[in-house]
């Protein structure tokens, strides 16, 4: 005789760290229920391992959170060691405790250089005035597309989306000189030809007149060997004195 186990009976076989618990349902089957205690420990003292709505999350602790042996978490969720005899706020701003590299809690710090130092643009952490890891801000190179920013100067293409605060790809209406443009939002193979006489150009195709002289767009003329302006042909017809000859 087949005997059904009581609904909710916890099964012996479980998957560790998936925030779920396998139990019997009312029909002799198996169902998964949320289990906030079934957390996966990622082994990082600078993350909070927690279950939320049945999903496993590893949330970074705040910079300065105490970890390991006299360590503090930095902005990159790394446990770094600092001089225990140093200032009370040492490393709380995300600076890295380094000798020749970032020292994690599992490593040994050179006693001779056991101190926190200001972050650099090559330390793999977001610190100082940086808007993203090792880019943006007043000291580092501009950030690539998709990186965090506060303004145009933080971005390689000089465009920081105000809504998402991220660097975005150049367009022909962003008001910036970027991409393949030769003048803000004009020129290059992607954007319209420039109608402004004197605007910067690289090749004739950058200009509405089809004439780029001394790296500037020139006005249409009847002697520029180009059909432009009101001309009916190359340097003839329209306002030009020369009449076009029918082929």
Automatic annotation (TrEMBL):
This is Uncharacterized protein. It comes from Polyangium fumosum. The lineage of its organism: Bacteria, Pseudomonadati, Myxococcota, Polyangia, Polyangiales.
